[in-house]
Design a protein that fits this description.
By secondary structure, the chain is mainly alpha-helical. The protein is built from 14 helices and 5 strands.
Length: 368
């Protein structure tokens, strides 16, 4: 029996806390960059607050008003739209190239990153698609092969950008959903092996991924080129110590740390507020993830279950890939930190997806 009750307030307060943390550290991390860009201290903070936080919270509250089953009804159109906007990237009129990658669509003065929307679109579609195939989940022609074809097509669109980090997130979430939907271990093992082989192939035959891997294995080997960002990141993290230098006192943000308001913002947090603040942020992401797991466990149906796990996994994967990469625990990917890094596309999609998760928390049913 499905019942509606009060939504998960703990999840809501965790979201607000992460938003607050993001704006707080962005205010400091963006000072120098804001001065260079616009001659004022808080250009990026204002932009993030207006076009990220305010609009994002609007999307969040809008999503809470639609019962989560609504997304199942439109899952296929969302998936098709996700593919179409990814394909638009490769049309000269729309795709915008930056630093050797074509990841942005431009329409006049507006631009956004379609891969962020595609991540959520894929999760919604696969959650709906797999939930309808409970009795056919281990059928090779009806489920396993189509699943592989869907992911292969997505892999092509992400690699052409190129966006290996985004692809890792999409494939990781897809694989988890297939596992939770009940696929047999032997199929999962074969898919995992294929994924590892393809990952190694595209890493070793890439002009920029192999140097990143080498710089991860030997950060000091090329400190002025491929190893520069991670070397500067480790300097910042090491100089922060337990309690940090003090808010606003980061030295690395003054021009030494690349992507200081993007994928490197965690370094500024540690340098200024110390390891303690970093641990608090990590545990905040973990707490959000476990609230998502609790919501999934209590979801009324398979679609709600898979969708809640997919959204929760999307956020935690991205957070920990970012933190691991910038801390020297994995190769750099250029992945932003959800609700903390500067960037409208990721910020808006994250809050939209959390609004969907929040709505799922309103409905419960004892699952067999």
């Amino acid at each position: 029996m499905t019942s509606k009750h009060k939504p998960d307030k703990t999840l809501f307060f965790l979201i607000l806390f992460l938003i607050f943390c993001g704006l707080l550290i962005l205010a400091s991390a963006s000072l120098v960059k804001s001065q260079m860009k616009a001659g004022e201290n808080y250009y990026y903070l204002k932009h993030q607050f207006i076009f990220g936080t305010l609009i994002g919270l609007g999307l969040f509250f809008s999503a809470t008003k639609f019962k989560y089953s609504f997304w199942k009804k439109i899952s296929f159109p969302i998936f098709v739209l996700s593919l179409l906007i990814l394909i638009l990237l490769f049309l000269p009129r729309y795709g915008m190239e930056s630093k050797g990658a074509t990841r942005w669509l431009g329409f006049g003065n507006l631009s956004f990153q379609p891969s962020e929307f595609a991540k959520l679109g894929v999760i919604i579609y696969l959650s709906a698609w797999l939930s309808k195939r409970k009795k056919q989940i281990n059928s090779l022609p009806k489920t396993i092969f189509p699943f592989l074809m869907i992911n292969a097509f997505l892999a092509v669109l992400f690699l052409l950008q190129p966006d290996m980090g985004g692809l890792m997130i999409v494939l990781g979430c897809s694989y988890l959903l297939l596992f939770l939907a009940g696929a047999k271990k032997r199929y999962l093992a074969v898919i995992a092996i294929l994924g590892i082989i393809l990952f190694l192939f595209f890493t070793f035959f890439s002009s920029y991924r192999l140097p990143r891997l080498k710089s991860f294995l030997s950060p000091g080997e090329d400190p002025l080129a491929s190893g520069y960002q991670i070397r500067q990141a480790l300097i910042g993290i090491g100089s922060g110590g337990i309690l940090g230098k003090g808010y606003g006192q980061s030295f690395q943000k003054t021009g030494y740390l690349p992507e200081v308001i993007g994928d490197s913002i965690f370094v500024v947090l540690i340098e200024e507020m110390g390891l303690v603040a970093g641990v608090i942020l990590v545990f905040s992401y973990l707490a959000l993830f476990f609230r998502g797991m609790r919501i999934a466990k209590r979801a009324p149906d398979d679609f709600g279950f898979l969708l809640a796990i997919g959204i929760s996994s999307l956020i935690i994967y991205q957070a920990f890939i970012n933190i691991a990469a910038i801390s020297g625990l994995s190769p750099l990917t250029g992945m932003t930190l959800p609700l903390v890094s500067y960037g409208g596309s990721s910020y808006l999609v994250t809050l939209l997806s959390l609004g969907i998760l929040f709505n799922i928390s309103c409905y419960t049913k004892t699952r067999s």
